[in-house]
Fold:
Amino acid sequence: MSLRRLLVANRGEIAVRVIRACHELGIETVAAVSEADRDGLPARLADRAVCVGPPRAAHSYLNQNALLAAAIGTGCDAVHPGYGFLSENAAFAAACEEAGLTFVGPRGETVRTMGDKLAARRLAERHGVPVVPGGGVPGGAADAAKAAERLGYPVLLKAAAGGGGRGIRVVRDPGELASAFAGAVAEAEAAFGDGTMYVERYVPRGRHLEVQVFGDGTGGVVHLGERDCSAQRRHQKIIEEAPATGVPEAIRTGARSAAMRLAETIRYRQAGTVEFIVDQDRGEYYFLEMNTRIQVEHPVTEEITGIDLVRLQLRLAGGEPLPVEQRDVGFTGHAIECRITAERPADGFRPSPGTITAWRPPSGTGIRLDTHCEAGYRVPPYYDSMLAKLIVHGRDRADATARTRAALADFVIDGVDTNLAFLRAVLAHPDFAADQITTRWVDDAMKTGRLTEVSPAKTSPLSPRHQ
Amino acid sequence: MDLTHDDVRLILDLVDEHEDIEFLELRLGDLHLVADRTGTGGHSPPAAVPRASGPGPVAVAEPDPSAGSAAAPAGAAENVEVVTAPVVGVFFAAPEPGAPPYVEVGGRVEAEDTVGLIEVMKMFNGVQAGVRGEVVRILVANEEFVEFGQPLMEIRPEAGE
Structure:
């Protein structure tokens, strides 16, 4: 049975993305919107919009009962959670299924297992997937100190319930440990209601490598290649690429089969991403975590494989067998995604809500923009500050980089502050061109002043239309 | 055993005083009381339904105090207060099937009177009039699905005694 009507339990660009994919497949859509998003693009594109609560996410996009009532009240048979919000909430996944709604994601139990980062680590270890040396610290700070002595400083403290860069601390020497531990526990308790920590050896020159998988729920799994998301600011991804050309082929092959093994073992259902850190100095890769949802950066995989990941999710949710076989998956060219946010980089990346007065995105061959924004749109202060994802596909990495630089140079957004000049600076840096970005690169470059923001006039020798 | 209205109010007040209580479910014989602060808009006091005998819910709920005037739509007649839905769900005009509705057009209500219920995943939230006056228009049908903030009825305010 294919899906008939689906509730989009999210907002912003991913809501737009899901609604469009549904309409292509003939699935009706109901957009669940907060009071702040009543006039937004998702509300206008969907067949129907239902206001589920006031602006604050806790009362709307995180309000499970309101979303379930909206889905049932409008006769939906499925719910797409997007990313963030309730996408990795095991209780919500289970509640949807109990209410007779197809949750477009893995089973609740899978979400729960992978949501506990420490449990996921143990699972990976049991199945021969390499993990960063380290482990749980049931005895608290004292255990963490012992583990750190054994592993050697610096170490990384991480929250078992973690995500989004919260509850993470780098500890460089024993003197820092106690206060860093207390700080990380407090942060984790505030953010996730769970202060359980674990310790890992810190990988100083790491690259973030992740493998996109799809499972049919019975053990059938395909992978759609890897992405490199090393360009991060404070553990938050900024630029993502596919394929991961900066990582040796042997490591990429190893990570792919490790990801497949893990997904097969847990009979993974739907789209998932297995994340690894690659230790450049040791030439090794380690499992970090598995994300049980569609990811922000999924478009770079779509661009190089030609496979629509959201459509694939919807077809699987409708009961079709995996429509892709591994031998059908090929890779063409190179894709780069930039996350464009309403933030002031000069001011510690402070969010900059307000009304967009001018919106002139770039266009041309290989340029894709996933967004919910337009001129006149009021960026609300209640949610994350992402405005758009610029995805550029080129023949190879050099071509994709050049096109991305040109596209960023052409992009005009007025009315709110954005990170466009910052992104231009990263793309213009020789280290980026040399494929030498590690997970620490952006933070280090900012500290040492190696990144200077670039105004559009300075980097506009080429427009994408002329290439 | 039977709980009186005052007993339920006492329980609700206790729950309300203790911010760390997010959810309370009480079963006493065939009485079923649920108080939940998580799923109904958060800032309102917990909603509750003591389910005595019979199939229908009986509301003793404390609705969102701001619901009465929060979102009066443009174009609504002047000197009329619009009662809006404090949550998304299914509107019930009466406490139980077959029972007379809480209010009818022309009827008078006190500010704290319950004028309907909204069911959200088996939880019944009372909707309060919010203002003393005369019901001049009812905008939704019994068992109709309503959105958060949707106008439910209009009340022409009357001065208190």
Chain A touches chain B at residues 35, 50-54, 56, 58-60, 63-66, 68-70, 73-74, 99 (CB under 8 Å). Residues 457-467 of chain A have pLDDT under 50 and may be disordered. Chain A has three domains: 5-104, 133-201, 206-466. Chain A is about 35% helix and 30% strand.
